[in-house]
Amino acid sequence: MATAEQRLAELGLELPPAPGAVAAYEPWVITGTMLYTSGQLPWRDGKTLLFKGQIGAALTLEQGTEACQLATLNCIAQLKSALGDLERVRRIVRIEGSLNMAPGHVMASPKVLNGASELVNAVFGERGRHTRMIYTFPELPLDTACLIVFWAEIA
Fold it and tell me: Can you give the pTM of this predicted structure?
């Protein structure tokens, strides 16, 4: 059975360095057997915000999906930073996605957030099957397209 990092490689993805916080908070917190990430943005190497603006206006729905995938990759990087080994993830319990959606495009938000869900399922297999919540806003901090949060049960 392939590990999460082997699955990432099979998908042609490389885990970036875990982005640092942009304000007065922690990028992740562990309490008991749960790890919670702060909201992760679609950063490239923790420095360049790749997807800015409203999904359905400045960005296409496909670009919104790509933004969710990149923010999810940064969430996975936070898990690796916190745990040292992704195999310590017992289960991704919940994904929360905040999406910067243009008026008239809110109905597309589940499909856009599938960019996060499908990547998690591909990387973690059954351990990736999760609940999720979508929040849509007309604007997000730093004008980001999305913000993704993980709740993970850990060993």
Answer: 0.97
